[in-house]
C-alpha cells in the first residue's frame, strides 16, 4: 500500500489539530509542525493511535531557514504529497484602541503571510521537478474585505490568497495543484478571546471535514460557510461606505497578537 505523506503546520490546536486528526489513519504519514511541543506531542499520540505514521518538529513558521531545512529533509526522505500551511495568529482593535500596535501588525504578517510562504515555497521546486504535488494555504473569509476589527489579519490573509492564486495557474501546467482555504468563524482557541458577533460559527472538526473533502477533490477555492462567503463577495460590490458602516460594530474587541517577541536567532 502506498503511503500518503502530508505536511501540516499549526498542528497543535484549532483547525490544524482537527485536520491532523481528520487525516490520521492507516496509509497516512503525517509531518506535523507547531511551536508548542507539549500540545504537538499530544496530537501526535492521538494520530498515531489512529494508525498514522507520525513525525513532528517544534518550529516557528517565521524561521525561514529552519523551516526550509526541515521540510527539504522530509521531502528528500520521501516525497511530500500534500502541504497545508495552517499556522496563524490573530490581532485586532477594540474600545479605546483604534489601531493595532506596529509590533502586533508585523507579528501577524510575519506569521500568517510569511509563515505560509515558508511552508509551501521550499516544496515548489521539488514538486515541479517530479510534476506532482499539492500545496494548500489557510486564508480566511476576512481576506475578501478588510475588517476594521482585525486589519493586519485581513491584510495577511488577503496576501496569502493573492499569492496562492498568482502561482496556481502556472503550477497547474506542471502537475502541481494549489488550493486556497477560506474559513469563516471557527470555534477555536484562535478566536476564543474575540468579543464580536460570529455568524454561522462551526466546530473545528466540521471545518476539517469540509477542508479535507475539498482538498481530496483538488478544489482551487474551499470557502465556507457558503452563505457567508457569497455575502462578503457581494459586499465588495457595494459602496465602500456601506461596508465600513456594516463591519465597524461598537463593542467589538479583538486582543492584540500575544506573540510580539522578535524571532530568536
Properties at a glance:
265 residues, alpha/beta, Rossmann fold, 7-stranded parallel sheet, 7 strands, globular
Task: Give an overview in words.
This protein has 265 residues and is an alpha/beta fold. It has a single domain, classed as NAD(P)-binding Rossmann-like Domain (Rossmann fold). Helix content is 45%, strand content 15%. The chain contains 8 helices and 7 strands; from the N terminus they run βαβαβαβαβαβαβαα. It has helices at 14-23, 37-49, 64-77, 102-130, 151-173, 204-216, 226-235, 240-247, and strands at 4-9, 28-34, 53-58, 82-85, 133-138, 176-183, 221-224. A 7-stranded parallel sheet has the order 3-2-1-4-5-6-7, with helices on both faces. Helix 1 (14-23) packs across helix 6 (204-216). The termini are far apart. Residues 260-265 have low confidence and may be disordered.
